[in-house]
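QA checklist item 7 of 12: single-chain prediction sanity check.
[x] sequence parsed
[x] length recorded as 103
[x] structure emitted
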Amino acid sequence: MASEIKQIAEAAWNIVRDPRSSRIERLEGLKLIAGCKGVLLPDVDERWLTVRQVTQLRRIKQELVERVLRRKAARNRQNRRAYLRRRIKALENQEGENVGRVE
């Protein structure tokens, strides 16, 4: 759990530091970072934004979530591959030991 929070904060910092990020992206990134530190900030009130800004804000939020989920899925695939490699190696070693035996 703590490692996931660190990764979320790291991804948010990358967005904040990115010079191509819009103001809304930076605000959302900073809110995520604050949330990771335990400080909950109110959401941006969409009543004060234009329709274009609201759609942009929602798109950005969705992209942030998708980015984190993609990284999590990639990490799960890596862990699964590593587990399967270890399992195959253990089975090959076990099979190699059984080949030398005469029953």
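[x] summary fact logged: The chain has a mean pLDDT of 82.
[ ] second reviewer sign-off
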